[in-house]
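User: My collaborator and I are trying to settle a disagreement about how two of our proteins should look. Neither of us wants to argue from intuition anymore, so we agreed to look at predicted structures for both before our next call. Could you fold the first one, then the second, and keep them clearly separated?

Assistant: That sounds like a sensible way to settle it. I'll keep them separate. The first protein:
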Amino acid sequence: MRAAGGRIEEVFGAKLRDFTTVGIGGAAERMVFPRSLQEIQEILRSERQHGREVRFLGAGSNLLVNDGGIRGTVMCLKKNMGKMIFSPGGAVVAEGGTMLPRFSVLCALSGLSGAEELAGIPGTVGGAISMNAGAYGRSIGELAEWVEIVDMDGRLVRLDSRDIHFGYREANFPMRGIISRVAFRLAFGNSDESFDRIRIYNEKRRATQPWGARTFGSTFRNPRGGEKAARLLDQAGMKGAREGDALFSEKHANFMINAGQASAAEAMRLIDRARQTVRATAGVELALEVKLWGVFDA
């Protein structure tokens, strides 16, 4: 497969545990790392023509990959597509592979406020938009003006944010594809104040979450009605609960940690155990925030 700039960057048999924040998962049949919109389009058109499945990977947080790996192609923008453009009036356009901490810091440096809460999220702009990631009362969908998606046929579509239903940790798009760029509208602010807020949020994370550990992020979504998944798990005695090298953090019960060489099978056993225990103790059905790739797909 050729692109205008030469050979498309690809790896066969890449170990997905090296591309996920929890460090679990088997190999991908093929991984591609496009460098441009044109390469994204070429890859998707070729894979559609040959009937091959394509999955999209951001920074690999909130993802559990089957131990046996997955067939098809995994497309990742994080490596080569993280550019940002700042325009007058508080407009910022970021490529889908832009990391959220970098996005937040560069906005603060530019005197723009509103993205400070996102600074501690270890994800990409594209991945965050796809699930409406957020923290401390801020969701990324609130900031978006438009989203560009390359659909599975390689067509570029620009969607107004009003055409996307952003909900709690979810975003419903009218088509499937990969998010190539997002435009944001931020407020003018003070850089020093923005960095103070980033520092405060990150200190809160360090105090309440297993900072630096290999983890998905949150394992379960908070149930409707204001209840917290972490509190339900704590009350059910799941803090420190373990299956092999997969365990729930003693610091935050909703964070599962890979404490060594945890397998996806161990992680799933612990997830199932947690759900059953919370169901029995609180009568609440916990929904996964983590996405499952491989034999777990529903």
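The second protein, kept apart from the first:
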Amino acid sequence: MTNALSVVNVASELAPLAKSGGLGDVAAALPKHMLDLGQKVTSILPMYSFLHHRRKEFERIGDVVIRIGYKRYPAEFYQTSQGDLPVALIWNEELFSCKTLYGCDNDNLRFYFFNLATLALLELKDVKPHIIHCHDWQAGLIPNLLRCYHSHDERYGRTATVYTIHNLQFQMQGGWRAVPEEKRDDGRGEPPSDLWRIRRLNFAARAIRYATVINAVSERYAKEILTPDFGEGLDPLLRRRRRDVYGIINGIDYQVFNPAFDHNIWYQYDWHSLEKKKRNKRKLQQFVGLEVKPDTPVIGLVHRLTEQKGFDLLKLLIPSLLKLPLQIVIVGTGGKDYLKFFQDVAKKYPRRVGVYSPFTEELGAKVYAGSDMFLMPSRFEPCGISQLISLRYGSIPIVHETGGLSDTISNFNPRTMKGNGFVFSSYTPEDLLIAIIRALETFKYGAVWNELTAEAMRRSYSWDLPSKKYLQLYRKALRLRRNH
């Protein structure tokens, strides 16, 4: 342990305490695997109102007052643990009484406070970290604060910052496009302290400008964000820092996502017992109210109902899909217009289509276990862990060739038996339809499909390799920090 690094993970989500998507899973799994690699790790997240209701479960460890402009905000610090992982939570009643993680009208102020309070907590606990790992924009102000206010602070004299871009589309409260171009924050200099300018603060831009190293959650996405098509207005800044931009694909936690032990599904199974997966399919068909037909493929989707996840494409394709021998089960949250559209389709074709909202872990697991195929037609996808979960559960992915989907899914060739899914290149209904038809045709050959399913389940998509790559990135960041 003499060479162990002191790592502080800062994120707005940490499953199962607070989760809206894949960020929560990654922020929970990566620190746990860093502990397995012998590092000293702590995680910090906001205490949302639904967590504050459970505050008696946590230990209160102190409080400070955070000053922003002329206003003072009390910060209460709590701690708990997830297994061997120490977890700290930061509470302020005025800022975090909002019932949701995001979408409040003062999100920039909330997370400005969270970033300041995180550094105050490290001082209170006398933590001198080697690495502060900041996940997405909600933790993105920390590199800026360290550079501007703590550059001569002995506590951070050897501290390097790692900024992970989970989705560059999300940069600040309300989105960067909502700010007039002439008023957009370029990320230079000290962060403002007046409330009006804080509303226009681009946390992601400041993280990219000031972090020691930057990484995206797949190798392809790390290249894509350097271009105008995927850079979300920050590609010029990213190109200037391209030597410090890396890509590391996410893994999934096999202690969480494992059909052999998952109590959310009807029958536990592995690749040796695929007949139990077929029994899960029958149960899913019954549960949803679909026609119970073992030879009819069930296509599952477990996503946010947004254009990014490809629901604009799926909406256009529904009339064609309903002419094919298949069934569709959708579990998702958000996107009210898309939700209503697909709910209307399900009402019209109740034996063909099922739609469930909001997402729950139990419903998601049942779809992964009971579906034959998993549709992920994302317009863009930084990494995606849904396709990795679907492989683990033997639901074969049908994906758009973009970002992390391109890094993890390859076209299945029945002649060579190589590949683990079905991929379409052009973001068009026609190309997606061809990929789905290819999957349906392959499904007709039971022995081939069973081998494809078994091989998908046998392969490892765990955090073992990604966590080692992150450790290498941490050490590289420390070398860069020493040289500057």
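Some points you might bring to the call about the second protein. The longest helix spans residues 464-482. The domain at 6-251+464-482 is CATH 3.40.50.2000 (Rossmann fold).
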